Records
---
Amino acid sequence: MVLLSILPFGFVIFMNSWSRWHRYEDASYHHRDFQVTRAYDQARRKGGAEVYASGTVDGDREWMNLRPYLQHGPTSQAELDSLVPVGTSISVYFFPSLKGRSRVQVFSDVPPAEASRREAMDARNYGLGGLALSAGSFSG
């Protein structure tokens, strides 16, 4: 059972990281501030919620995923509004050549391309290690 779950979950994690890595790999970016004009907590059909914000970067209207910014997911719109009030300034990487919410990423010590490369390699290494351990436990 473990063997059957490692393969698909590991593959999905790897492919998401791989895709994100290559999206940001050669894209130019600037370190900017995102000024929040409104935060949104939108329930999805299959559970969970999307948490994002509209705001401005260099005077242009942009959208941003708030999940990486927040320590935990809010339970309501009111909680989100208290965590990210209008006027909040968030330090971001701004990718002017990309589209949608991909253009604005929360600033961290490691740029998005490198962070995603590391995640992809970790998923590959841990996935293969997990498969080897699982296969070894079945043969012994």
---
Amino acid sequence: MSRHVGVCNSHRSQALKTTRQVLVWEKRTGTDPISFGPLSTLYACLRPAGASIAIGQDSEGSGDTVGNVGTSDLSIRGALVSDLFTTGLASREACSISEGPSDPLCATVSTDTVRLFNLLTHRSLRQRLAAADVDYAYSPAGAIAWEAPTNPQTAATPLMLQAVSFDPSRLTEGRIETLDTGALGLSLRFTGLRLHWTNAGQPKSLVLSSQ
């Protein structure tokens, strides 16, 4: 006798990532209005029969234009799903072609947002980063950290290291704090709530308070 396939598990053929508790799947949902290429939406649901919620989008390019939106860094821990959602990719590429790939202003025409979804409580949290392509780190224990230019008009250092803690169950966040400033390296990482980074080549760390 075949087992009943719940609402969530019915999307297994479209799965991008699965765990024992969660399924993330993708479906073509339209056309990118910028590149005119295919646009897909990413969904997440609790297995086996939970309802699906939209967690991001991906679009493909068409002709000489790249897709304008993208979802990356997909992570699942228990019922907590996180990703990095980027918009303005086509505008950033156009800026790089016209102004040169090293022009720091090109990073300001696109937007990176860390997005969190608790599938048990149906709560979500969105933390916009200071600029596109900055280094960032995420801890499912309850923290997000990222580097931000002190002057968006220049690519030179110093940079700011900013962080915010959040409650993983309720997805309520605290106040954004600036932890450090200087020649920050591309080395942000968390061990639990302990954030590790380097400044002028010297390793540093700090435990962020939980919410």
---
Amino acid sequence: MIMIILKKPEYENDDYLFRLELDNIPIGEAAVDFLKRVEPSSVEYYRAKRQAFMSQDMSPLIFERFVEGKPSLRALSELPALDSTIYTVACEKENGLYYQDLIEKVKRHLTSRPATRRCVVRLVNSFDKYFCSEILEPADVTCLSFIHYLQEGPKLVFRASDVKNELLVDILTVYEFFVKPVYNSNLKDLRLSVYSSTAQNVFSWDDFTSLLKTISVEGEA
């Protein structure tokens, strides 16, 4: 697939920026087949996360088997609910709308005002929650700050992004639940921009970009 890297991370916690074409990112079983070919170790994690997004299940128990090797899950046993990790829940909490209603409003907004620069869905937590999660007690906090929907395609802005353990699954799940439902089949000439203000495990950057460039889709589930 076409991938344009505008800024690669040079060191741990550096930022990155890249763009992808949108018309052939796989979803569902097509995404599973893709992961089986290029990164089999991510298949079950993708399935669990996708199911949690679909059902809006916030139970930490879903991800217990993935704790080892995934720093984002290090405090899992101390969390009562994953109300920020499950983005279909986080978007409701931070925007005051049910997920499906939010998607429909975004679609209508882009249709009625295609030149808008104000179609932004936020998932970012308050400073107080981020602060308390480090100083007082563990809390579930989101890595994805917001999605900016524009006529030419969406932009994802992350606070933090684990290149090795999370980014590929993030791209696949965010695309399925927050990008494709908005733009529907009008994806051919659109681009997805992805920016993160900090990146972790940057030594895996070349591997990650190689995997993305191999994406091809024969069909979607």
---
Amino acid sequence: MKTNDILLIAAVAAGVYWLARSNSSNTIKNMGEAINGISEIFTGTKQGETGYGWRYFSDGASISPDGKYYLNGEYVWG
């Protein structure tokens, strides 16, 4: 591996670490909006509550805890 490759990998790892440790809880959500216009909707449900484990998105998509994909309430694939 060349020195440039190692420096590039280190820089990318540092950037990912910075995003993960950022004080702003919206950093990753806002990045998703900037990239594709779709953001995840965080419900704040806790284990044992209805809806726990589901992921909801601003385009009407949702993903069940077992990985099934729905769009506007209709099953798409999974």
